[in-house]
Structure formats: structure tokens, C-alpha cells
Amino acid sequence: MKQTDVLIIGAGAAGLMCAATAGYRGKSVTVVDMGKKPGRKILISGGGRCNFTNENATPDNYLCQNPHFVKSALSRYSAQDFIELVDRHGLNYHHKTLGQLFCDDSAQDIVDILMTECDWAGVSVNLRSEVLTVEKNDSGYKVTTSGESYQCQSLVVASGGLTMPKLGASPIGYKIAEQFGLNVLPTTAALVPFTLHDHDKQRFDGLSGISVDCLVSSQCGTQFRENILFTHRGLSGPAILQISSFWQAGQSIAINLLPETNIEEVIEQWREESPKKALKNMLATLLPKSFIEAMVKQQEIVDRNINQLTKADVAALSEYLHQWQIKPNGTEGYRTAEVTLGGVDTDELSSKTFESKKAINLYFIGEVIDVTGWLGGYNFQIAWAQGVACGQVV
Ligand SMILES: Cc1cc2nc3c(=O)[nH]c(=O)nc-3n(C[C@H](O)[C@H](O)[C@H](O)COP(=O)(O)OP(=O)(O)OC[C@H]3O[C@@H](n4cnc5c(N)ncnc54)[C@H](O)[C@@H]3O)c2cc1C
């Protein structure tokens, strides 16, 4: 049986950051992961360029049953701290909209930085090692993997959520939490595309690939202003992924297709300037032509000239374009979701160290716990911050 001060389950964002931090403190640290490569989610993130942080990250960008839980780690390790780390390694990166930072070349650069830090800190990373059982004993924890047994003083569970089972997602973290009496909140896929009912799929047939800048609102009033994208399965795009975290089965979402424009005012202007033009042609100057044609074909937008529009037509059009209601059938689920909502209840953990309140020297960090960020680099930022906070104390 191998001895190590700290055993970390999961060579993902949170686990590797924690490992390097603890290693620099002189601890012997071992990371085990069942994957062939470390940081597999980092590698596919941000379309292969890893949106590794968000300069505007605040606690308001996270969903958690206890909204105060994220404050401590986030304030002690900010986006700027991670930027300083990648700068020290000479990473080339660029800013996108809304505070998002991406690698210029490849997400592999972020994994290389983390693995270099782990190497410098003397961490051993054991891949192809699936954790099978965990037992508490007098010296700490005994962890049995597919190839080896380890005895550690401190055990850090950084095994992630349930998204992308193909990339090694497993419920091991929730099982360990339950084994030690910790409450686990129900989990669900988030930052995930919506699927549509058959009648909506037929309505939008042929629109796949079209994207529109919209203001999307959930029934609880949360709003996101970004693109929506029609896909052959349903609706996706950043605004849809964002709102999916606030959506519950059976609810509708409202989409303002023209957030910058008051369509009633625009139609008054068109009445003066182009009264004989067809409404659909004029609308096609504001929205994708194929979308307008499809909606006219479905008789959801009237096929008249501007000067033929009645007051009721204009009111209906305004409601339609500014308050378009869609009731999703569901989501694409864990297969394509970026994150998992819910998980280990934060009431069971210290928000400063991430140690469990019920089992000494047992820690949970990263996506396995009930903290979920918005789309835009927020999830990696909280993983780095929790990894550092935990690595400083294990
Ligand atoms: C397609 C996609 C794109 C994303 N893009 C971004 C982005 O650009 N920016 C952003 O901020 N977030 C992004 N995310 C979210 C982000 O990847 C996660 O929030 C983050 O990776 C969570 O880190 P983690 O360390 O908690 O877990 P993970 O990165 O999931 O790591 C957990 C590790 O534990 C291992 N493991 C699980 N079970 C076992 C077991 N039984 N034994 C051994 N090992 C085990 C897994 O193999 C895995 O390597 C994206 C997610 C996806 C799916």
C-alpha cells in the first residue's frame, strides 16, 4: 500500500490546482484519475481554447443553495491571480466579450501549465486509476483504485459532476459524500441545449444553424442577452445555455428577438417611408430572412403589406417578437451539458477549507459540490479558487 499525505481524486481543474498548492507546502501529494490524460474537460472546453477565467467573476455569477458559500474562496483567489499564474508561464491568450479569457492556441496550454506546476511541486499524478472504495481508519483514509491501494492522512474529492460520461464523469464523489453521512442535493444537467416538442421541431425545421442576438428570460425573471442558435434537435447558443441553469421542467422561456428595437415604433416609421412594402421583407432587415419566412409560413406572422396592418396585427406582432414564448420539451441532459447543478450540500462543508463537517480531513472541491457558475469562464475560476483554498490547508 502506498503512503501519501494527501490523496486527490480527480486530475481536473480543481484537483490539479489543489495538488500543486499542497505540494508546494511540502506535502506528499498523489492525484488519481481514471482517465488516460489529465484535465480532459479542460482540453475540450471553450471549443478547444478553454475559457479559463472571467475577469468579472463575482459571487453573483454562481448558483448555490447558500449564495454566501462561494465568497470566501473567490475573494482569496481571483481571476487576476489565475491570470498572473498563466502570465508567469508565458501563455498567449485573448479577451472576448463579457470578461471572458481564452487561450490563443489550445486548451492543452492550460493543462500543460497545471501539470508543470504539479511537477515542480513534486506531485505524482496516477492516471488510469479508477477509485473503487474509500475506508476511514486510524491513520486517515484508505483508498483502493483499480491498480493500487493508498493510505492518506487527507482525502480530497475533486471528481467532478455527471456531465459528459464519455470523459470519465462518475458519481463516485456523491457516493463518498453519502458514505460519510453528508447530504447530497439532487443533480441536474445545466448549461445545456434545450430539446423541443415535435410541433416546435416542425415549426423550426430548416432553421438549423441560424443564430439571433436575443434577450432570454426564465420564469423566475433571470435574463441573459446573448445569441440563441437553432439546431436540428432544438435550441442552443450561449443565451439558451445560460437560461437552462434557471429552467425547470414544464416552464416556458420568453425570448425578446429584438431587444434593441421597439417594433411598434419601427412599424410607424415604415408606414411613412415604405407603406406598400411587404411586412415580411421589412422584418427580414431586422431578423434572419429564413426565420421570418418560416414564421410567415406557420401563419405566426401575418403576410401583409405595411399599410394593411391593423392595430391588432401590430400588437400581436409586438408580443410575438418581444415576448416569444417557447416551452422546451427538456434538455439534452448530461451527454452534452457543460455542468451539473446540485451535488454535495455546501452546508456540510467549510466555505474556507472545504473540509467536511462530519468527517475530519475529508474535503470536497470543484463541480462535485453544489456550486455552479454561469457560462463564460466562471466554472474554471471557482475550481481554481477552491483548489487553492483547499490546497493551503490539507
Ligand atoms: C464541453 C464543455 C465545455 C466547457 N467549457 C468551459 C469553459 O470554457 N470555461 C469554464 O469555466 N468551464 C467550462 N466547462 C465546465 C468545466 O469544464 C467544469 O466546471 C470543470 O472542469 C470542473 O472541474 P472539476 O475539477 O471539478 O471536475 P472535472 O474537470 O470533471 O474533473 C474530475 C475528474 O475526476 C475523474 N474521476 C471521476 N470519477 C473518478 C473515479 N471513480 N476514479 C478516478 N477518477 C475519477 C474524472 O476522470 C475527471 O478527470 C465546460 C464543460 C464542458 C463539458
Attribute tags:
394 residues; 13 helices
Give a short synopsis of this structure.
The chain is of the alpha+beta class. Helix content is 30%, strand content 25%.
Helix and strand topology:
Layout: E1 2-9, H1 13-24, E2 29-32, H2 40-44, E3 51-54, E4 62-63, H3 71-76, H4 79-88, E5 93-95, E6 100-103, H5 108-120, E7 124-126, E8 131-137, E9 140-145, E10 149-157, H6 172-179, E11 184-190, E12 194-195, H7 198-203, E13 211-217, E14 223-230, E15 234-236, H8 238-244, E16 253-256, H9 263-273, H10 279-283, H11 289-297, H12 311-322, E17 324-326, E18 330-331, E19 339-344, E20 362-364, E21 372-373, H13 378-391
Parallel strand pairs: 1-2, 1-10, 2-7, 10-20
Antiparallel strand pairs: 3-6, 4-21, 5-6, 8-9, 9-10, 11-19, 12-15, 12-18, 13-14, 13-16, 14-15, 16-17
Helix pairs in contact: 1-5, 1-13
Flavin-adenine dinucleotide binds next to helix 1, helix 2 and helix 13.
Q: Uncertain spans, ≥5 residues at pLDDT below 50?
A: none
Q: For the terminal residues, how far apart are their CA atoms?
A: 21 Å
Helix content: 25-40%
Protein structure class: alpha+beta
The average pLDDT score comes to 97
Strand content: 15-25%
The kinds of small molecule bound in this structure are: flavin-adenine dinucleotide
In DSSP terms (H or I, runs of 4 or more residues), the helix count works out at 13
DSSP strand count: 21
Q: Report the radius of gyration as a whole number of Å.
A: 24 Å
